[in-house]
Amino acid sequence: MSDNPKRPKTDQTAAAASRSDHQMYRDFFKQVYETMQQNYYHPVAQEEYDRFLKTFEEKIYSQLMSEGKSNDYVRWRSAAYLVDSLKSKEDIFSAFYPPEPAKEYEQTVLGKKVDIGVEGKLTGEGFVLTQVEPRSDAYQKGLRVRDIIKKVDKQDVIGLTEEKVIELLTSFEGDTVEIVFLDVRNNMEQTVSIASGEYFKQTVFMTPVPVKGVYCLEIRRFNRKTAEDMYNYINFIHDQKDNIGLILDLRGNPGGPPLAAREISSFFLPAGEEFAYFQRRDKPKAALDIPRISKRFHYKEPIVILVNEKSGSASELFSGIMQDRKRAVLMGQNTAGQVFLKSMFNFDDQSMLLLVTARGYYPSGKVFNFSGVKPDRFVKKEEEDSLLRYAANYIVYLKGQDASSLPLEPKNP
């Protein structure tokens, strides 16, 4: 007999397994949809969700299965299609992440510093320090710029590669590193044990300006101590008799917490007024006011802010508000367009949904655009090398004029 009595049972089992897989997919898609429905800044349409389910059954599932993809891959890739179909067309930031990319993203965003707070270069004398973070344990133990590390955990750095030295200086949080270094201030060798742990990096640095009386502060990112760093520099600049203006260089600054931008605004804007606000869908607005500080630290001279396409989040929030209040002129390229709040939503399989959950707004109610803040003076990337001098000359021209009526185009100073 040619009939196989086991075949009907096998077909039934396969069909049951297929139905079970489809129900598993649908349950997961529903989770993703409901998470967006509850948390996304923009309403999501039931019709789009139903359209996706139909497309999944008619096209997506069969195509991925024909490529030999696993159930996990089908679920995650399809969920990514779902998010793309539901999110606003202007939103290029919300996304679905499978487990490995989700873990990598979280480590990047939430990861703690685990180095000891020093940077340097390997020379014939040893590892010469070019940066010592002021809030790190290394600084507390006495290391300073130009000191020379001779040994790390009893290993002579001479004979090692620079990469190996850096590796030895980077350890797990809570571990200690024994260092023998030459203190160049008194020409004495010292041995210290330095703890590796979380700290807030210095974010503000003074940059030389080729125009007398103009000062430039480069702010590389925003964190909870950026305002403290600013305080020290603003205090110094205030004491300079030739002070006529300030350049704030935010090019390449990826941003940070909005509260850091709020705190920095206190040096330049009137206290107590609304700085900006964030709004979740169907929720009251969360307003940020301008903090009150001593009037001694209010900076009143002209300001130019340098921005580019890598100036994001809190850096463009601060820049946009300063521009809107006519307190500063922006020069460079459009910013990144990331003045919003993002939230991470994790699922049981360790995948993650990243959503824009709130948009940033000017006090007037105007929303920060996804296309970024547009500078008053657009400067091509190939012209960026001369931007600092141009900004300084512009301040020379502006000196003595009311900051509320700054022209957008300079005259030859």
Summarize the structure.
With 413 residues, the protein is of the alpha+beta class. It is 33% helix and 22% strand.
CATH superfamily of the largest domain: 2-enoyl-CoA Hydratase, Chain A, domain 1
Helix/strand order, N-terminal first = HHHEHEEHEEHEEEEHEHEEEHEEEEH
CATH third-tier fold name of the largest domain: 2-enoyl-CoA Hydratase, Chain A, domain 1
Largest sheet: 6 strands, antiparallel
Form type: globular
Mean pLDDT: 89
Structural class: alpha+beta
Q: Explain this structure to me?
A:
- This protein is an alpha+beta fold.
- It folds into three domains: 15-89, no CATH class; 118-195, Pdz3 Domain, CATH 2.30.42; 204-340 and 357-405, 2-enoyl-CoA Hydratase, Chain A, domain 1, CATH 3.90.226.10.
- It has ten helices and 17 strands.
- The protein has helices at residues 7-39, 46-66, 71-86, 99-110, 137-140, 162-168, 226-238, 258-265, 314-324, 387-398; strands at residues 95-97, 118-122, 127-132, 148-152, 155-156, 176-183, 188-195, 204-207, 214-219, 245-249, 274-280, 286-289, 303-307, 329-332, 340-346, 352-361, 377-378.
- Helix 1 runs parallel beside helix 3 (71-86) and helix 2 packs antiparallel against helix 3 (71-86).
- The chain is globular, with a radius of gyration of 28 Å.
- It starts with 6 loop residues before the first helix and ends in a 15-residue tail after the last helix.
- Residues 1-7 and 406-413 have low confidence and may be disordered.
Essential attributes:
10 helices, disordered N terminus, single chain, 413 residues, 6-stranded antiparallel sheet, disordered C terminus, globular, 33% helix, 2-enoyl-CoA Hydratase, Chain A, domain 1, Pdz3 Domain, 17 strands, alpha+beta, 3 domains
